[in-house]
Write a structure and sequence with these properties.
2 domains, 20% strand, alpha/beta, Oxidized Rhodanese, domain 1, disordered N terminus, single chain
Amino acid sequence: MITKVIGISTTLGMRNLAIRNLARISSNLYHLNIRQQEVLQSSIKTYPVSKNFHIVKFSTENSHRKPIPSVQYNDVKELPNHPEKLLIDVRELQELEETGKIPTSINIPLASVVQVLAEDVRPQMFLSKYGRRKPTFADEIIFTCRSGKRALKAAEIANAMGFKNVKFYEGSWEDWVKNEQKN
């Protein structure tokens, strides 16, 4: 059981703050090389301490989350024909400049996924920055990176935020390049 005392902003709201803290904890577990199957998360419980502070408990037992599905090269290759699906590359901008990117993908670095997909980001701001409509909780979002590890992490974060149709490109950029060279 991981317990953390956090400050609550009246404008931010408890749900978004809990999701952001869950994403930080999940990221820390990732950096400790704890695999997805080992990290089991259940409900988030809050206990008021005062008007501005709550104790939030994140349990790592008795998960009810289902595994994040993956997509393959052919699925990603068809994305230009499916503008309703969003492909998010979570690599850093420098990595994209060195290697290139998959057509139709937008870049949201892994460290920014929570902030960019948060409910308090206005759809007009998302559209003007990324040239795509901000996804709803029901829209299909596919995450990609260099090899697939960060893509899976981003998909888990989006899933924890409430997005219901998230996937990750298992081979990501490395698989894309290998398959494009064959064709």
